[in-house]
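Regression test case RT-17, inverse folding.

Input:
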């Protein structure tokens, strides 16, 4: 068997592992074949929480908004600070603790 055919067979094996959800195994195999991009993609699939968690949390934060008690303008709360400055009227107001707990 030529090297090229051998490599093709190896890749087929990795794809099988990938489909079976054995991403770490597949990543190791791809590294041996020096297929770095595929290896990286498999590693990401193996550890989906690692670099996506920050983005996921940001998405959650964006969904919480507060209404200003002075002018009624609502604005998203994106920090754990318990005081925000209203973009509508410029006054400071306090975020209730139970709202902060949602962040
Ligand atoms: Zn306001």
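Golden output:
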């Amino acid at each position: 068997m030529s090297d090229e055919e051998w490599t093709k067979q190896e890749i087929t094996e990795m794809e099988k592992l990938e489909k079976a959800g054995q991403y770490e195994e597949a990543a190791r195999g791809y590294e041996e074949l020096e297929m770095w991009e595929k290896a990286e993609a498999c590693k990401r699939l193996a550890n989906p929480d690692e670099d996506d968690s920050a983005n996921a949390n940001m998405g959650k934060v964006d969904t919480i908004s507060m209404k200003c008690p002075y002018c009624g303008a609502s604005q998203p709360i994106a920090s754990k600070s318990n005081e925000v400055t209203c973009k509508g009227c410029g006054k400071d107001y306090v975020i209730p603790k139970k709202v902060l707990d949602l962040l």
